[in-house]
Amino acid sequence: MMGVLVSSLLMAAAGSSTLERLSDEVxxxxxxxxxxxxxxxxxxxxxxxxxxxxxxxxxxxxxxxKLSCEVIDATPDAAIALAGQRELSSLxxxxxxxxxxxxxxxxxxxxxxxxxxxxxxxxxxPRSTAxxxxxxxxxxxxxxxxxxxxxxxxxxxxxxxxxxxLARWSTVPVAxxxxxxxxxxxxxxxxxxxxxxxxxxxxxxxxxxxxxSSAPAAASVSREPFGAIAFLQNPPRLVxxxxxxxxxxxxxxxxxxxxxxxxxxxxxxxxxxxxLEPGLNRFLPEVQVGGRSTRMPSGFQASSTRxxxxxxxxxxxxxxxxxxxxxxxxxxxVGCGSALADVDKDGVPELLxxxxxxxxxxxxxxxLSLPVAEGLAANAQSTRSTTPSWQATLKGxxxxxxxxxxxxxxxxxxxxGTWLADGTGELWVARRVxx
Length: 435
Hints:
alpha+beta
């Protein structure tokens, strides 16, 4: 008969609330241990109202099982003495705690009478059982306990990108940047082709062009083309610097015309203020970050910053992902056409990496999560030592890349330019495939 009652209690608990399931489990264990009434219940929680709620529900379940019950307003340690004073045969002691997802109960159930004939120290009755339970927290109990119910996280959806060609040119893209110049929350694209700056809509239609050759000539010119572009706000403007020029030009968009508004000796690359190194396709190691001067370990070819994380690409084919300056740690086989972007809108950027190869007519792209990239940097490992979230092979070498919100939806796309074997260039976009 006792086994049937225990089974029926557990079956009834299947569709019950968290407190009801806890009470049914405790009642089943009390019955299985052979404990008898009257029985005391001592509950310990951080909130008096929650303590009373747990005690009331548990006593109700014990009474339903034909065990007379009484809630004892005392801590579990003090409850034994009170149970003896009130001539209760058994006692349930529980410490109950909650977080945003679970309810945990720990304690015991025991006989309270003492055998005074057992020796100098009286012993308690032989019937007792340890109690330990964990349940998923429901909204009702979360409200009683005064905690916020943390939603169960959805399973991670694998990231997959789709490549689309945006534009083709007869020359190589030297520099690439994205930003919102017209306030529509969609990123325009700026591409440096030789010494011509081309401003594009998110659909890659030409908005404006500007020739940078009027700036002072550089003292020496790099063997390979090089340059940099930055979008700045307050007021919206572009800064463009060709490696053939000694200074950068500041430009504003008026209608469909880019108009010069001055020259400057530095350019801001996602928060890093840098200068081109004359005669080389890289930036000088002396930079400013957050208004403070610092020195990189060496000159660098590209950088990208998102959510306080910076990718730096070095001329030796290595890169690093860092949250502090000067940066440390190296990732092997990282090309200058690499960047950070938040493609899944979770506030944590992803890293799309090209290879460090300098020859051949094909390149590979690998998408890495930020934790994976930071792990590679900390352990000085190559990108080939891990399995990427997504990868693709395409013609040409990827030499410039940036993150851009082309759709205005708060998520970013990767936009990159390739140098093809015949000397021409192509602009691509890598968009997340929405499940």
